[in-house]
Automatic annotation (TrEMBL):
The gene coding this protein: LOC119638693
Subcellular location: Mitochondrion membrane
Organism: Glossina fuscipes
Descriptive protein name: Exonuclease 3'-5' domain-containing protein 2
Domain of life: Eukaryota
Example of a GO cellular component annotation carried by this entry: nucleus
Amino acid sequence: MSNVKPNSLSNSLTPVKSALLAGAGIGLLFLVVKRQHILSYWNRFQNPLKRKHVVLIQNANDCQKVVNILKSDYKVLGFDCEWVTVNGNRRPVALLQLCSNRGYCALFRLCCIRQIPKSLKDLLADEEVIKVGVDPGYDAQKLALDYGVGVASTFDLRYLATMVGRKPEGLAKLSLSVLKITLDKHWRLSCSNWEAKDLTEKQIEYAANDAFVAVEIFKTLAREFKPRLSWLSDFAITKCRIEPYLELQFNSSFSQKKSKATVNKSVTPIKTQNRKLSTLSKALYDNCLLQAPDGELLCTIDKRKAEWYLQQQLGVKIESEPFIVRLNFEPASRAVGEVGRYYQTPKENRCVVCGERNAFVRKNIVPREYRKHFPVVLKSHTSHDVLLLCPKCHQISNISDFKVRNKLSEMCDAHQRIPKPAELPELRQVKMAARALLNHSEQIPLERRKYLETLVLNHFKESEDINWDMIKEASELHTSEPNDSYCTHGEKVVQKFQADFGGLKELEKLWRQHFLNTMEPKYLPPLWDVNHNANRLEIRATQGRVNEEDMLIAGVPLHKE
C-alpha cells in the first residue's frame, strides 16, 4: 500500500497545471499580438500611406535628433512647404515637410520655431541630399526669402516622369498614376490655417502625405528608369542622369507629350520658344566620297552636295555605289591628322545616345544662339557639332541645356534685362524675300519671283538690276531698330569668353563636355573630340590659312617659328 497521500498528489500537480495554463495564456497572447501585427502589415500593404511615421517638431531642441535620423537614411528626401495667405498677401512659410526613404516624415513648424536651427539649415543646404517634389524650387525660394535659408539640390519629379515616358503632372495626379494613391487635395485643407496653435489630424496627415508620396514617386520612377536593378543599388547612375536638372525649374514645352504641366502652387513659367521639332525620316548621312584630283579621299559628303559639284562641272562622277566624285581642281587643303580622318569616316544614321534608327532630330551641341556670334573661321565646317538624336533623347538633352545656359548667365552677367529692339516690318519683308530667292528660286513661280525681286531692288534704290550679291546682302539684313544698349544672352557670353575665359574654344569644350556628361552617348562617330576646333585651327595655322586675330579669339596659341 502506497504511503503517498491524496493531498500530497494534488499539491504536486498544481505547479504543472499552473505552468500549462500559463503557457496556454502566453500562446494565446502571442497569437493575438501576432494577428495584430499581421493585420497591421496587411493594412500597410493595402494602404501605403500607413507605412509612414510622422513626427511634429515645434521647438528648436527637438530638431537635432530628427535631423540626425533624416541624415542617416538614404540621401533623397520628399520636400514640401505650407503657408498662409491673408487678404492676398503670403505670410512666411509655416510648415516644412521632409520625408526619408523609409517613410520617416518630419513636420517642422517654422512658425513656432521662428529661427531655423543650424542642423536643419545644414541639411537643407547639403548638395548631396536631393530634395524631391513637384516644383520644389518654388518652395525653396520662399524659404530663402522668409528665413535666409539656402536649399540645395532640389529636383522636380516631372523631369523623371518625362524621362521614363510618363505624363508630367502635379503631385496628386502623379501619386494616382504612379503609386495608385489618391491624395485628399480639398481646398479647405490646402488653404487651412497652418499657423494655428494646434494642427488638426487632417492637417498633419495632409502635410505628411505630400512629402511621403514625393519620395515614393521618386523611388518608383527610378526603378522604371533602371528596371533591372533596385533604385537603391543603382542610385549612383540615376543620380548622375538627373544631376543636370537639379535646382532647375520644370518647363512644360519640353515634356515628352508637349502637355501643359500642372503645378500645385502658382508660379511664373520660364519663357521659351515653342518650336516643333523637325524629325528626319530619311537618312542624313549619304556618305558619298569626295576625292582630290589624284584620287586621295578628302571627306564624306551628302548626295546633294556631290551632285552640286557635278552640276557646276567642278568634278566628275567615278562610281555610283558608293557615290564617288573626283574634283578637277586642287582643293585648298587635304585631310590631315585625326581632324582630317574624322571627316573621311562614314557616319551612321542612328541616335548617338541610344542607337535608335527610325527617326532623328539634328542636335546642335554648341547651341546656335552662341555659334552665330563666332567669327567665320569657327562657324564654317561645324558638322562635327551637329549630331543625330532620337526625339526622346533630343528633348532630354534640351532640358539639360537650360541649366548650363543659366550658369552661363551668372558667369557672364548675361541676363537679358533690356527689352529686345522692335522689329521693322518693311526690312523683315525684304529679308524674307531675299531668303526665298536665295534658297528656293527655282521652285518659285515666275510672277511671284519677279515680285520678290522687286522688293529687294526697291530696298537698293541705286541699282536697276538685281544680282546675286544684292540678294545675299538683303538676306542678312538686321531688321530691328538700332539699340546700342541691347545685347543678347548669346552675344554677351561669346564676348565674355573671348575676353576673360580663355577664348571660344573653352565655350565649345564646355558644351561638348556637358553633352558627354549628361547624355552618355554610346554611338558617337569615331574620332569625335571635345577639342576638335582647336586642333583644326592649329592645322590651318601651320598651312597659313588662318590669321592671328582669329586664333586669339578662339583661344588657340599661335606657334611662331
